[in-house]
Design a protein that fits this description.
Shape: globular
Distance between the termini: 40 Å
Number of strands: 11
Strand content: over 45%
Order of helices and strands: EEEEEEEEEEE
Helix content: under 10%
Radius of gyration: 13 Å
Number of helices: 0
């Protein structure tokens, strides 16, 4: 099973930036799709962004133009660059991997946007 370790969350003011990292336990080119999801208090987990092995990306409408998903194959790591953060972006962010008909989740990292 693929293990995922997230990092990079924290407290940031509105308008600020953060970069989340997700390190996978095996080559990301052996993983069909990796992505970021988030869950705010009292809400369902929702998709933020995904990237496939072929490099295709997909974003939630609410983050288009502000967030960017990317990868570093040498480090088996996927990133989420988050700019122009809003209080509504506050949530626990989870990394996900889809591979071999299976799904793995990271432990989550808290992002809080507040003045």
């Amino acid at each position: 099973q693929v293990q995922l370790v997230e990092s990079g969350g924290g407290l940031v003011q509105p308008g600020g930036s953060l970069r989340l990292s997700c390190a996978a336990s095996r080559s990301i080119f052996s993983i069909y799709s990796m992505g970021w999801y988030r869950q705010a208090p009292g809400k369902q987990r929702e998709l933020v962004a995904t990237i496939t092995v072929g490099g295709s990306t997909n974003y939630a409408d609410s983050v288009k133009g502000r967030f960017t998903i990317s990868r570093d194959s040498a480090k088996n790591t996927v990133y989420l660059q988050m700019n122009s953060l809003k209080p509504g972006d506050t949530a626990i962010y989870y990394c996900n991997a889809q591979y071999d008909g299976r799904s793995s989740w990271g432990q989550g990292t808290q992002v809080t946007v507040s003045s």
